[in-house]
Amino acid sequence: MHELDHYIYPHRVLHWLVALAALLSLASGLTLGFLGYERTLALVGNTLTNLLYTSHKTLGVTILLLMTLRIITRIAFVVPDHDPPLNAFERIVSTSVHHLLYVGLVVMPLLGWAATATGGFPVEFFHWHLPGLLGKHEALSETLFMWHERVGWALVVLITLHVAGALFHWRIKRDNVMKRMSLFD
Predict the structure, then answer these.
(1) High-pLDDT (> 70) share of the chain, %
(2) CB 114: neighbour CB atoms within 10 A?
(3) Which of 19, 115, 157, 175 is the most buried (most CB within 10 A)?
């Protein structure tokens, strides 16, 4: 494979790490969102409930860190051309979905961080407590959590579109789009 046929290897690794972290974060967030604190506590107990919340927050901070590195590698290195080129519709949809994913994957953890801090809860990364950056403000926390949830649902839609597009190129068009992000040369 020619070196300009795919993204640089660190960017490909970051893509798949973000994908894994985002799926785990969405799964834990949806679970916590549907059950709420009290029902989660009743179902799995205090230790697992705390672990679920801490894991969700840790995944959010991890996504923010990984996305920062992704943005740096995206800016610093050549983006491979599509071979064969995408048609106008595919190019517009692909570019839109990718840009919205980048924005969502940065905004989502920032909203969660701010919502957590303004709710008076610890912002955790593994067992470290990070600065809240904002003081306690319950009404603001509720609004931020509402937007955190909305961005989460938007990410579910965008990830679904992204995966559907990848599958379309891999199984139907059988072009080289999937090779651009493959971990295996």
Answers:
(1) 97
(2) 22
(3) 115
User: What six digits make up the tokens of 50?
Assistant: 């705390």
CA atoms within 13 A on the CB side of 181: 16
113-120: long-range contacts, CB 8 A cutoff, minimum separation 24: 113/60, 113/61, 113/64, 114/144, 115/141, 115/144, 115/145, 115/147, 115/148, 116/57, 116/141, 118/144, 119/145
pLDDT digits (tens, 9 = 90+) for 114-140: 999 999 999 999 999 999 989 999 999
CA–CA gap between residue 57 and residue 115 (Å, rounded) = 11
Q: DSSP letter string over 124-173?
A: EETTEEEP-SS---HHHHHHHHHHHHHHHHHHHHHHHHHHHHHHIIIIII
3-state secondary structure of 123: strand
Phi, psi of 124 (to 5 degrees): -110, 145
Structure tokens at 13: 């690794």
Q: Rounded to whole angstroms, how far apart are CA atoms 76 and 78? A: 7
Name the strand (E) or helix (H) holding 37: helix 9-76
Q: What is the pLDDT of residues 39-98, one digit of tens each?
A: 999 999 999 999 999 999 999 999 999 999 999 999 999 888 888 889 999 999 999 999
Structure tokens at 172: 């139907």
